[in-house]
Specification:
By secondary structure, the chain is mainly α. It contains 3 helices and no strands. The protein has helices spanning 2-21, 26-30, 35-134. Helix 1 packs antiparallel against helix 3 (35-134).
Length: 135
């Protein structure tokens, strides 16, 4: 934006300087009604128009460059977020696998414990039955 203001002030200074120095013969000479003077006035206006259009195009390119730069930052942020998500997903998968193994081992330990107590109870039951049968 600073560049745009500088370009406009340069363009305005050029116009003021051209008028104060009477470049291209000055407007006083053009007022005589000659075709050459009118052609020069027309050409001067065309040059000013072209200059303004070039400045506008330059501003557009500057704005475009700024937008591309801003989008580059956003793209880098998106890429960083994707990589973080990938890492966290891999970590989560490892934790799910560990939790699954833990659950399986816990279930097996519970089954073995129940089987052990069932065998102990069965053994005690047979021992009591034998003792009561012998008496």
């Amino acid at each position: 934006r600073y560049l745009r203001m500088a370009m406009r002030s340069r363009r305005d200074a050029w116009d003021d300087e051209e008028e104060s120095h009477g470049l291209l013969g000055g407007r006083q000479m053009y007022d005589e009604g000659s075709n050459v003077g009118q052609d020069l006035i027309r050409r001067r206006e065309q040059v000013k128009d072209i200059s303004r259009e070039i400045t506008d195009v330059q501003e557009i390119f500057h704005d475009f460059a700024s937008m591309v730069k801003e989008q580059g930052v956003h793209i880098n942020d998106i890429e960083s977020n994707i990589l973080d998500t990938k890492e966290k997903t891999e970590e989560a998968l490892k934790e799910v696998v560990m939790a699954s193994d833990y659950t399986r081992r816990k279930r097996n330990a519970l089954c073995y414990t129940l089987l052990f107590f069932l065998l102990i109870t069965l053994g005690i039951g047979l021992f009591v039955y034998e003792l009561s049968d012998n008496n």
